[in-house]
Automatic annotation (TrEMBL):
GO cellular component entries: plasma membrane
Membrane topology annotation: Multi-pass membrane protein
Annotated localization: Cell membrane
The protein's name: Branched-chain amino acid ABC transporter permease
Similarity section: Belongs to the binding-protein-dependent transport system permease family. LivHM subfamily.
InterPro entries recorded: ABC_transp_permease (IPR001851), BCAA_transport_permease (IPR052157)
Keywords associated with the record: Amino-acid transport, Cell inner membrane, Cell membrane, Membrane, Transmembrane, Transmembrane helix, Transport
């Protein structure tokens, strides 16, 4: 039973990280009907930005907690700037173009950012310091769940609550919902659609950066390719839950995290990355709209 709980909590941690990335996918798709395949690279850039900040502050002799918090803030700001710039350069000019054009542009941005970081850094895995301290009250349960997992779960929960509040109770949140429902009508009633789309990319990039810092600190290493796998799995999670649905993105991420954890724990870890793609195929076959997604009918 203890082993089961270890796998359960491990899957919950995985799902929480996937959720932070999947939120960006589902928010962007819900508003502009675009699959931003470069979103995983924003996650990767957030991790690398945090590593650079951590290296500098460690040399200066800063406190461990302060280093982690400052690195996370800088990573969020820097990644958000990347997301904003990417939307203006790669997606906004193609907003009226066929969807395939925007999709190709997204894939191009993904490859560009991968190779940009490869040339700016290195192709090797780089060590990432584990700055999350051990909590004394967690010592009796350290063999089941550690303080890094607790920080990841708590941070993800806080992000979800804040994002839900933002979308449901703020002016920009109402504008997001209006734009997602009918972009043309939203423009007619005075919603600044361009601003809404930019804010959506910024928020999605920020949540991905938080995920990048947390998982890098937990795993202890990063390289230029980590965003591709994480991005693909987060995309699968968004589709699984119902892309365009924020609760669906969270639910799909948790289901995917638990599935990977239990399959690798009870069957084999050699096929860990295969499970996500098997899930994607099954969902597309039997429920294309996802768990919480709703099928839409085209008007003639």
């Amino acid at each position: 039973m203890e082993y089961f709980f270890e796998l359960f909590l491990g899957g919950l941690t995985r799902g929480s990280i996937y959720a932070l990335i999947a939120l960006g996918y589902t928010m962007v798709y819900g508003i502009v009907q675009l699959i931003n395949f470069a979103h995983g690279e924003i996650y990767m850039i957030g991790a690398f930005t945090a590593l650079i900040v951590i290296s500098v502050l460690t040399i200066l002799g800063w406190n461990q907690i302060a280093i982690l918090l400052i690195a996370a803030v800088v990573a969020v700001v820097y990644s958000s700037a990347y997301g904003y710039t990417m939307e203006k350069i790669a997606y906004k000019p193609l907003r009226q173009a066929p969807r395939l054009s925007a999709l190709i542009s997204a894939i191009g941005m993904s490859l560009f950012l991968q190779n940009y970081v490869l040339l700016a850094q290195t192709s090797d895995f780089m060590p990432f310091p584990g700055l999350i301290p051990d909590f004394e009250f967690m010592e009796p349960y350290a063999h089941i769940i550690g303080s890094p997992e607790v920080v990841i779960l708590v941070t993800t929960t806080i992000v979800m609550v804040l994002l839900t509040f933002l979308i449901k109770f703020t002016k920009i949140g109402k504008a997001m919902r209006a734009t997602a429902q009918d972009r043309d009508m939203a423009m007619l009633v005075g919603v600044d659609v361009n601003r809404v789309i930019s804010v959506t990319f910024i928020i999605g990039s920020a949540t991905a950066a938080i995920g990048g810092v947390l998982i890098a600190s937990h795993i202890g290493q990063i390289n230029f390719y980590i965003g591709f796998i994480a991005g693909i799995k987060a995309f699968v999670a968004a589709v699984l839950g119902g892309i365009g649905s924020i609760p669906g993105a969270v639910l799909g991420s948790l289901v995917l995290g638990w599935t990977e954890s239990f399959f690798t724990g009870y069957i084999s870890s050699d096929y860990e990355d295969v499970f996500a793609f098997v899930f994607l195929v099954l969902i597309l076959i039997f429920r294309p709209a996802g768990i919480l997604g709703r099928s839409t009918t085209e008007k003639v």
